[in-house]
Design brief:
Distance between the termini: 52 Å
CATH architecture of the largest domain: 2-Layer Sandwich
CATH topology of the largest domain: PmbA/TldD fold
Radius of gyration: 24 Å
Helix content: 10-25%
Oligomer: single chain
Strand content: 35-45%
CATH class of the largest domain: Alpha Beta
Largest sheet: 7 strands, mixed
Shape: globular
CATH superfamily of the largest domain: PmbA/TldD superfamily
């Protein structure tokens, strides 16, 4: 599935177009190895070599699409595309006009290829399992090359390829408690893996104690980077989207109106400098290398797609149609790792969260559950694991006046999704200590 094969197919499609037609073509492709573990044994392993194309045909302010495999065999792919175009030509004229349909425009082209040093597929098992052979080590390792590409009828074309891996694992106790960990990147490093397992083992040893029941109420809380990343993921759901604000559903509307601010310690941006995800979107538009969203507690930008810009008379900033975060980063603070427990004092240490949802989106209230290796801390010392708790709090509080400190280090929390294809990117976030985090159950 080479770049040349993709470019040849693009030229074939361009040659088939009628004067009043336009198209976009996007490619998701990967060559990945997947190995699934349970009880520190291999339960499933294999490789995937897959490619999927989406062709959008536009005519007279109407559009529709077809998806079909990309094989790299030009004649086969050309015939498949020709069949798709014929089908779309019958369908598109029957659809209603979309007054906010954005046609491809501009002359953007790009090519990014990021090569990594991944584990040899034959060495995955011998590298991962020996140091966890005494544990119920369960998870999935995924690695390989991922490609995203784009082309359209006006000549724009982008190619993005990267080598990456992710390891998403849990260590389970005999009574079903667990410690969760993730590791990801482009260059495998044995020492980083061993350090991660050592950290997980330390938490795992503490999970052997009886869980401490915690009464509902407000507690000083440390949220590790993985927990902060979960909270930040909510901002892509009716949060940082300009369309959501215009339609009255954004949690940031109060900030947009100048009624609220966050802590001066809090800064959020989109940062594509790491090269983990492509900057181009489904219209071939290229996002800024860096886009400030919240700066020292002040809302600077919301993510604005061209369709939203067209509908509301605004300026687009390279956002995708869904206007979600693609390469987000919360800037670090000044809290040293060895000062976390002392700063927390007495309260809760949360390694992970799950089942998050908005409980009241206009006021920024998020609810969810604690998960995996969460502890009660007294006088700067971990005392015992806790039973699962439900929290319900507003980010206007925990990223606002209740934010005590952000750590001076960040962790990259990868998107380990593999539904349909292996996802790219993730979240770069520090840990944080907050006052009066609210637990309801």
């Amino acid at each position: 599935m080479s770049e040349t094969s993709f470019s040849q197919l693009v030229e074939e499609i361009r040659a088939q177009l009628k004067p009043d037609e336009q198209f976009t073509l996007t490619l998701d492709s990967e060559q990945s190895q997947f190995t699934r573990f349970n009880h520190a044994k291999v339960r499933q392993t294999g490789t995937v070599n897959d490619g999927s194309l989406q062709l959008v045909l536009m005519q007279n302010q109407r559009s529709s699409y077809r998806e079909f495999p990309f094989t790299g065999d030009l004649e086969f792919d050309r015939q498949t595309a020709e069949t798709a175009i014929a089908s779309l030509r019958e369908e598109v004229p029957q659809l209603p006009e979309n007054p906010y349909l954005v046609l491809p425009s501009g002359s953007n082209t790009s090519r990014e290829v990021h090569s990594g040093q991944l584990l040899d597929p034959d060495k995955v098992v011998s590298t991962l399992l020996p140091i966890v052979s005494d544990l119920d080590f369960t998870g999935i390792y995924a690695a390989g090359s991922v490609i995203r590409a784009y082309a359209d009828s006006v000549g724009q074309q982008h190619w993005f390829a990267t080598d990456s891996y992710s390891l998403d694992y849990s260590l389970f106790t005999t009574d079903g408690q667990a410690v969760k960990g993730t590791l990801a990147g482009s260059d495998w490093d044995d020492s980083s893996y061993k350090l991660k397992i050592e950290e997980s083992r330390s938490q795992f040893a503490r999970m052997a104690q009886l869980p401490k029941p915690i009464q509902r109420g407000q507690y000083r809380t440390y949220l590790a980077p993985a927990a902060v990343a979960e909270l930040m993921s909510m901002l892509s759901w009716g949060g940082i989207s300009e369309a959501s604000h215009q339609q009255g559903g954004s949690c940031f509307s109060a900030m947009r109106r100048g009624e609220k601010k966050l802590s001066p310690k809090f800064t959020l941006k989109e940062d594509f400098k790491s090269g983990l995800v492509p900057r181009f979107n489904e219209l071939g538009e290229v996002a800024p290398l860096e886009l400030s969203l919240i700066e020292s507690g002040e809302l600077i930008n919301m993510l604005t797609s061209s369709a939203t810009a067209k509908e509301y008379g605004l300026q687009a900033n390279g956002a995708t149609q869904g206007e979600g975060l693609r390469s987000p980063e919360i800037l670090a603070g000044d809290l040293n790792h060895d000062r976390i427990l002392a700063t927390l004092g007495t309260g809760l240490y949360l390694s992970n969260l799950h089942y998050l949802n908005w409980s009241d989106r206009p006021t920024g209230r998020i609810t969810g559950m604690t998960r995996y290796a969460c502890f009660w801390v007294e006088n700067g010392e971990i005392v015992a694991p806790i039973e699962n708790l439900r929290f319900d709090d507003s980010f206007y509080q925990f990223w606002g006046e209740n934010l005590i400190a952000l750590t001076n280090f960040q962790e990259f929390i990868p998107d380990v999704g593999t539904y349909g294809h292996r996802n790219l990117g993730g979240v770069r976030a520090p840990g944080m200590v907050v006052e009066n985090f609210t637990y309801t159950l």
